[in-house]
Amino acid sequence: FSGVTGVQTCALPISVMALICASVLTGCSSGTPKAGTINTQPASDGCAAMDKVYVSALKESSTGKTFSSLPKDASPEVKQASWQAFTVTLNTDYRAKFTKAAAKDKTAQAALGALGTYATLSAQISDGKLSEFANPTQAEADLKIGRTPTPNPTYVQAVNKLADAGATLAKCMPHWPVAF
Predict the structure, then answer these.
(1) Most buried residue, 24, 33, 74, 151, by CB count within 10 Å?
(2) Distance of CA 103 to the CA centre of its chain
(3) pLDDT of residue 26
(4) Which pLDDT value is given to residue 7?
């Protein structure tokens, strides 16, 4: 892994990653950045403080060190597992530091909430706890005959929330990777 903000791949379905990337680049429904832009500055003072916590966690925590030292040719599964472990560390071990950094800054507080959403939903999606299809057995049969399977509405909702959370985090903290 070369650099914190480098573009890498992961084990999430391509459609999920495309949605997350598109939402970050276009600013989702709640953002203001212009299409095609990536945040290079913290969105607020609280976000700047949170970004410092993020960079510190990346350098200090065992999961951050593991994630940031992955070779470029690491498998998508290894990258995803490492990223997932790091987001759990951020949301648990560094939660108090993020909370203090966010203070009374509304933008940073929104990012703090997004961190919890992101860590939880990312784990559920990547671990397969949420099925992409309403009926996985029927989906397999549908795919074999060229028919589009029925999506699981809970999965679709989770993917949309994950994309929004990722966009919120990327807009707040410039070191948060848009995609990894």
Answers:
(1) 24
(2) 22
(3) 35
(4) 31
> DSSP letter string over the chain?
--STT-----SS-HHHHHHHHHHHHHTTTT--PPTT----S-SSHHHHHHHHHHHHHHHHSHHHHHHHT--TT--HHHHHHHHHHHHHHHHHTTHHHHHHHHTT-HHHHHHHHHHHHHHHHHHHHHTTSS-SBSSHHHHHHHHHTTPPPPBPHHHHHHHHHHHHHHHHHHHH-TTS-S--
Consecutive 10-residue averages of pLDDT for the chain (180 residues):
34 45 37 46 96 97 96 92 94 98 97 97 89 94 96 96 95 84
Residue 157 contacts by C-beta under 8 Å, 6 or more apart in sequence?
none
